[in-house]
Design goal:
Oligomer: single chain
Structural class: alpha/beta
Distance between the termini: 52 Å
CATH architecture of the largest domain: 3-Layer(aba) Sandwich
Strand content: 15-25%
Shape: elongated
Amino acid sequence: MNFRYPIFLDVTGKRCIVVGDGYEIPGKVRVLVERGAEVTYIHPTADQSIAELAKEGRLRWEQRGFLPSDLNECFLVITDQEDNSEVFRLAEQRNVLCNAVDDPDFCRFSFGSTLSRDHLTIAISTNGVAPALAVRLRQRLEREIGEEYSLFTSMLNELRPEITQSIPNFSARRDLWYKLVDSAALDLVRQHKPEEARRMLRQLVDKAKDVDGGVH
């Protein structure tokens, strides 16, 4: 295995197939749905959480076994069966990304242990060597990177269009972003002072616009 090329995917509107009923499958289905994928779950039976998503119309549940045609126009497939080799072989033929749960010989990509704080996502991988280590590192980061990062990244996201439009100089834009993330605004959010944090960020942006001579 050689899962050493890190990547984050946009699966919005992409046809993604999930096959099988292993204990990790409900979580993987849920994340795909939450990230906006067009999910089809293929198995005669389903975990209650998957069945409820199907009932709500958030995914399609095919109550049968896997067929090769299921991979037509598919972007990504996750499989958790006793034998994943055929799904992987067909996925390779069709250039479909395939992950076989806990079966690295039949994977084109692996899932890291992830920590999400709104726009901030941190993924940790040990290349399949020691998944438990990745989990422990994620748990450590969860203690250090709290929910304040969710609000802070949302504030930065609100400013991004203005910064991009008003400060055309790349170096000036880069310097401003470092000033924003290195400022005391995050600490203010942590202290439950979001409006003070916003004012601080606004002052930094306005100052950068004045120096750069950007559009106001």
